[in-house]
# Entry
Amino acid sequence: MVAAPGDSSTKATPTSVPGQSVITRSHQLIASFLEAEGYTDTLAAFRREASAAFEGVDLLTPAEASTDLREVVEDYLTSRMHALAIPPAPLEDELLRLKLEAPLPTKVIKTIRDGTNVLTCRRGVLPKREWNGASGRFKSEFLPAIFTTAVDRTLKVYSSESYELLHSQQFPSPVLSIAVHPRHLRFVVAGMMEGSLHLLDLVTLDVVQKEKDHNKFIVRTAWSDDGHWIASIGYDRTVNIYQVLETRPTGDGANALLDGEEPDELASTPKLSIVLRHTHECKSNPEAVIFLPSSSHLVFACRDDHILHYLSLPSPTGPSSPTDYTLTGYNLNENGDAWVSFSVLYITLHPKLPLLSLQTSTENSRILLYPFHSSQRLLTLFTTAEQGEYSTPRHAWLPDGSAALVNSEDGILRVVDLQGKVRQRIPAHGVAGPVEEGEDDAAEGRLERARLRREADRGSSVVKDVAVIERDGHLVFVSCGFDKTLRWAA
# Structure
């Protein structure tokens, strides 16, 4: 039957409109993407408006599972790269071959409540040398541990296995950052809020040396892999480079061994001292710092700066060179302009590939991966972790380099894989944290008044720092925050 002219009772079917299948397929891909990412309100509005604009478009039938909107975009970008004859970036193929397959922690299993806000947590080992009465010998051991610092000016060390407090030490100011000697694990350098740098021996518990070369916060410290250099950056807009001088005592200065006792690393105390060799003044506050594994360069980033800075280091044993402490910059903007759209607030190394992992100041935290000495960005990971103007973003890579654990301001730990997908969300801190022993029961928790009291008791949901450890062949996440807790998730 043919409709009469002007008869609007007959509606077009999907097959009667040119390109209708493309329109339907495009809308289905977008709808599937919105549904997969949890954009419920946006999806409802999209279905409503699309149905009104295109009659016959089926948005209730999901797109085929074998196809994803991100795949379409990736195919388009790949075709554009081929068209422009852009060669693939070095390491890109190796990076994308890393797939997250290990089982992930799912919930908080242990909470240690501190008296004040916990500022940092990092994995490490605690060296101990104690007299063993049963054997009549000294016993040296290295205990797997978690190091924390807090507003109460303490450095605490907890066993990463039994959660026992192994050591606590008070300082004149809160410690904002620590770094450990790569070989002599007994030595730790601590950067203070009041601007001093302390060199600490964890075996003797002595502060070996104290330097005061910053007049404002020391926000980050780093120790080079060869052990010869220490860096500190502060809110006085300076980057300080210290050389580490080491001598091992001999003769009367060495620790005496009992008859038949085997010497070990902790049997004698190496003498360490640090000397300020170079200060670089920045235009704005430096926020992140790290040494390259070769110890040839120090890399740092500053607030409101689109340049990643590389500072060359001299040979610790060779003659001086005109290239010592030479500064080189790499533009982080992909189009090469000078616009500052973000600051890099944290830098770490990828555990498997020679890549710098940069975390940004954007409203939703991002992780950017760059090869050493390169402006070519390999990957951008959108973590979905919201942050504010005064956030201190942190992340820790899983040992196989397939994903990163990210902190947040909403109390939730997120694991983001290299495909940019959030693979795990663990409510851990503040109001998002799990109900602890002694809190109101479930019935009372449903009351608004009880909810508000619980939220106040738990404090801020800001997650300040994160760490990843392995225990009995399984991953364990450690985090600390402004709810005055240190938590383990498994």
